User: What shape does this take?
Amino acid sequence: MKAYRAAVLRFNPEREPASAAIYEEDGLLVVGPKADGTQVVQAVGAYSDLRQQFSSVPTEHLPGRLIAPGFVDMHLHYAQTNVMGSPAAGLLPWLEKYTFPEEERFAARDYCAEAAQFFIAELLRNGVTTALAFATSHIASVDALFTAALEHRMRLITGLCLMDRHAPNKLLNRAAPDGALGATEQSLIDSEALIQKWQGRGRLGYAITPRFAPSCSDAQLRGAGELAAKYPEVWIQSHVAENADEIKWARELFPQSRSYLATYGDFGLLRPRAVYAHCLHLDATDRALLRDAGASAAICPTSNLFLGSGFFDYGAADRAGFRYGLASDVGGGTSFSPFHTMLAAYYVGGEGQSKAGMSLAPQQLWWQHTLGAGQALGLAGAHGAPSIGNLQPGCEADFVVLNPQATPLLARRTASANSLDELLFALIVLGDDRLVERTVISQKI
Ligand code: GUN
Ligand code: ZN
Assistant: This one.
């Protein structure tokens, strides 16, 4: 066992997100192995209450520091690090001009390995301890990302990108080398082999990954849905309703479905552990469909602002009651930092609620990138799944040590914070990777 004495932030899952935070200014976090050897939170609370009971446990004192749950990034692309900051007139030209050419480079194993190492290191440096990420349409890209995550024991979910049409030839899924099977069938066989190879290994998970409906044939979406039914424990990740031209295209390609989102439902791709990035331009029937299916939205505010895609409607999402959490969407997104993403979510929430003159509360923003995102991934305690995004007893010991004095401005501003909300908001608005002094990943011993 090991203990950390510092300020500690965690969440009460029973409470409304805007007031879910539990904060100990002088707290103690005790971590130790559970039966399978995974490090989990054994106890947490005020130092004065716990010091006697854990007096024999080696304790690291971190004065002035804040321990908080590791961040959960619900959607990003590891092959798009080099695409960040590439401007274009909207999503489809951006894909054509920058994204597809860069993803083609992941045909080379060495290129994948180097990019995967950088990506995992960058996530950890920014305090992200769980991620649901896109790889590319190359098997080597999936293997490389899982391998890098396994090395760091990071909780990472990815999968082979399914795209059998409407992209450059080199990026489409490949037919079998002997020509016995076409690209569509082979991509589904490859996906199943990757599920068997990686799902549940260490802290890894597999996601069936149709890129978006326009890049997949009916047969590929149907096959993906069949895999999703056969393996209910694996995830599904895709994009939906991000951009006006994309939506128009998806409607032309799948006119028999009621809506773009409904297309996924019609192929069996809406269910718990299905995560759809963006979800900007939905109607009330779509939102009810997400909720009733138990599927989730990954909200990507920096990407939506950068690509001019639109604004996630928080009010409508809450009225419908489907699950959601925050995501960077690198490389459409402009930062790996959860602080930048939370700030962008604040701006977006303000846009939607401008009549009320207020946006999302600081605790709500933080919750959306930790416990809320963990719940939206189906990884926050339900049905025997591990608990992430929180530091309550029993949760996996993934956490960040933040230094609110990391820069002169942060030190000055946080010193004058008069409440927890003021402190959290100052960190959200002024914070970035410099705040993250250390990222601790739950080890198996
Ligand atoms: N829709 C299909 N592919 C992509 C992608 O790579 N990024 C974003 N933002 N949207 C997409
Ligand atoms: Zn994306």
